[in-house]
Amino acid sequence: MALLADALSRVKPSATIAVAQKARELKAKGRDVISLGAGEPDFDTPDNIKKAAIEAINRGETKYTPVAGIQPLREAIAAKFKRENNLDYKAAQTIVGTGGKQILFNAFMATLNPGDEVVIPAPYWVSYPEMVSLCGGTPVFVSATQENGFKLQAEDLEKAITPKTKWFIFNSPSNPTGAAYTHDELKALTDVLMKHEQVWILTDDMYEHLTFGGFKFVTPAEVEPGLYNRTLTMNGVSKAYAMTGWRIGYAAGPAELINAMTTIQSQQTSGACSIAQWAAVEALNGNQDFIAESRKAFEKRRDLVVSMLNQAPGLECPTPEGAFYVYPSCAGLIGKTSPGGKVIETDEDFVTELLEAEGIAVVHGSAFGLGPNFRISYATSEAELEESCIRIQRFCNACK
Q1: Which of 94, 120, 192, 248 has the most crowded Cβ, counting Cβ within 10 A?
Q2: What's the average model confidence in pLDDT over 105-109?
Q3: Are 196 and 161 a contacting pair, CB within 8 Å?
Q4: Across 362-373, average pLDDT
């Protein structure tokens, strides 16, 4: 009898985690490696949030928590959605999970039946299709091309929807491209979704606070209130407050869906870490100055990286509106020979040869569903980014 479940054959390991691990292994062997693979702010969690966690420990907030989250955090989440997104949710319509991944997984586990389709714009975050497949659904990919700024067009969304479509996943600003949708660009998509009453919207707003140059963030149920009753609005404290390791994601949506997700979580992990939840209360309710400071630093880094990559022969790097990623095309290097003597046939060849020759770890675009591109995370120091871009330029110049 086989040990492993058939479901495992439908899922691939995370490419972003694999790149980070490979970089760690090479560093351990003494190689000079700069890893630009991880989607994680390099800033420390703000002091007021750390202090709130310490105070929670000293108060004895170290017991099991309610499955859907402690009441002060659920109230803070509802207040955040009202204050920042013009969305009215009761605390009972919210749920707290161990990171955004658990929120997504619970939603799919609670709603997907075999044969249900989930429309996913490509490039996509690597975990979306794997979660859909593990939960028995069928991912349906729709290309959002570089010509369109990596933004899904309304007519392409319309073509992808069938009677079997259960969910549409929307992520803005996007991981991996950094593309963010304006009010009008999003309205074109919500107009399509209004025509298809069977389609639910799962919006991943994790990078909401990381937009640049006066860009105004909007979320689907805010743009089209008619979608409120079939939208799950997901967010978290990881990116905005540099709290990746605290593992707190949250969402709000119709009570029926939230209750179903809570039932699944009750048999899976129960409530998220008590101390991390109290820290998240302070993150959402406390001083917000950190967000503007980190945004300013990220914008400066973005401009540095875009400028330097566009000086490398064979690369073309669009300027993204948000997040902390760029998604350059390496089409101009396909067919050339790397300094190591290998012909670069794919974006995966490009990133493999770049790591080998120059010790720069990035993630190939085909892992995100659209190449020939690669993703760079610029969530690291300006000095490291400058050195990385010099090495990338050198590599590109050496390709024949």
Answers
A1: 248
A2: 98
A3: yes
A4: 95
